[in-house]
Specification:
Blueprint: H1 2-8, H2 19-26, H3 40-54, H4 56-60, H5 63-79, H6 84-101, H7 112-128, H8 149-174, H9 182-188, H10 190-193, H11 197-228, H12 230-243, H13 267-279, E1 288-290, E2 295-297, E3 300-302, E4 307-309, H14 312-316, H15 359-376, E5 377-381, E6 405-409, H16 413-420
Antiparallel strand pairs: 1-4, 2-3, 5-6
Helix pairs in contact: 5-6, 5-15, 6-11, 7-8, 7-11, 8-11, 11-13, 11-15, 12-13
């Protein structure tokens, strides 16, 4: 309740970022980063550029990309079920690369760009840990020769990665071969958005780095939840079978496999996704906000300059909102009629005006992967490889522990391959 009343309803007063971001994201990365931006007017320009091209209607245009890539995940798992984690990462990276830069070539799990994305994400997580760099407490250290060398080196690596990708879009535009993408739309409206070349490169790059990492983590959490909670998985599969069918010979009137059009008819699946992300929140701590003006809440004053954090993990474990919070129970999200409840909400994507801008694309990725995987497979814990359901990593972006699972096709494998192979 406090997070909602302060960070949502008064979010306009919490758009700042703390000194951590000043030191690590402005002084050491050339002032280009979007996620850690602390300057209000510049932040608004960046935010407007994102919302113009990633709002719900615009995000809907990418559904074909997402469903085709999700079908490739099913085929990849049929070929190599032990490597499901890398296959999910391939999905997340290939979708976001296509959305942001329209990288039209099939992105394999061994692609060099994916490796560079993973390296960049790893560094960001290390740099974002509280206390990782003493300069946060002693800003004067930034003037010491040689201090921050690691940060500067990462900035050069990151900027090179981001400029390479946006540069390819620029080259395609010069040859009139550029397909629609977020990067192309930014370049076409460069004067309207008033962004420098470095700002555009970092804006696109920040979206594809953060988007690919968190999307992959979310999908892996859903797979883990299915393997650890077979009863909940069964409920979802029964619902999908009733809506879509799981055998096209027996259900000729149904779609061959789940699509985005089935979303509103699958409340059990929506509840399963919501519960999985509550059970294992992708960003358990949440991003820190800095008050840009005094905030009065219930007679208490949060003075300007204060740091506010909406701790997703604590919110997810609030026994008043989520009774018996350690129990995995998707039914808590449904009313007695089996419809989704409207009186509870979990802020997976942050708060207020700092909410994650790619949330509409991320939600669609979580849905279509869950729908296709649970329609295609019975996901089981292997008797010889028990899963540590509580082994999530302790980091800014929490990850499911490495685990093996059995992916048992729910229909004849040849038929499943035929359906999933019908990629447009």
């Amino acid at each position: 309740q406090a997070a909602t009343e302060i960070m949502e309803k008064k979010g306009w007063a919490l758009v700042g970022r703390p000194r951590l971001c000043n030191c690590l994201r402005r002084d050491h990365v050339g002032g280009h980063a979007y996620a850690g931006d602390t300057q209000w007017l510049r932040f608004r320009r960046l935010r407007k550029a994102i919302h113009t091209h990633l709002q719900p209607k615009a995000a809907g245009a990418y559904q074909r990309i997402q469903i085709d890539a999700a079908k490739e995940v099913v085929l990849d798992i049929l070929n190599d079920p032990k490597d499901h984690a890398r296959q999910v990462l391939r999905y997340a990276a290939s979708v976001i690369l296509r959305v942001i830069y329209w990288k039209s070539t099939s992105t394999s799990k061994d692609d060099l760009v994916i490796a560079r994305i993973a390296e960049d994400s790893k560094h960001i997580q290390i740099a974002s840990r509280p206390g990782a760099f003493l300069v946060v407490l002693l800003p004067c250290l930034k003037y010491v020769p040689g201090y921050g060398r690691v940060l500067h080196e990462h900035h050069e690596f990151e900027l090179s990665l981001f400029r390479d990708q946006l540069g390819r879009v620029t080259d395609d535009m010069s040859r009139n071969k550029a397909s629609p993408s977020f990067g192309r739309m930014l370049l076409e409206k460069i004067h309207e958005h008033r962004l420098s070349g470095g700002e555009m490169a970092y804006l696109c790059g920040s979206l594809f780095t953060a988007g690919s990492d968190t999307t992959a983590v979310g999908i892996m959490t859903l797979i883990l939840a299915a393997a650890c909670h077979p009863e909940a998985q069964t409920r979802v599969q029964e619902e999908i079978d009733a809506v879509v069918g799981n055998d096209r010979d027996e259900h000729p009137h149904c779609s061959l496999s789940p699509t985005f059009e089935d979303w509103d008819q699958l409340p059990q699946l929506q509840a399963f996704i919501s519960e999985a992300l509550r059970w294992g929140p992708v960003a358990p701590i949440g991003a820190a906000h800095r008050a840009t003006r005094d905030i009065v809440w219930r007679g208490l004053c949060i003075p300007v300059g204060s740091i506010a954090v909406g701790c997703h993990w604590a919110i997810a474990r609030d026994p008043i909102v989520f009774p018996d919070p350690e129990t995995f129970d998707p039914q808590r999200w449904l009313d007695p009629n089996g419809d989704l409840r409207t009186d509870i909400h979990f802020y997976n994507y942050g708060f207020g005006q700092r909410i994650r801008p790619g949330l509409h694309i991320a939600n669609r990725s979580l849905y279509i992967n869950s729908a296709l995987l649970l329609w295609s497979f019975r996901i089981l814990e292997r008797p010889d490889a028990p899963i540590d359901a509580n082994g999530f990593t302790d980091s800014i972006i929490t990850r499911a522990p490495p685990f093996e699972a059995e992916f048992v096709p729910r229909m004849e494998e040849k038929k499943l391959r035929e359906i999933m192979g019908g990629i447009l």
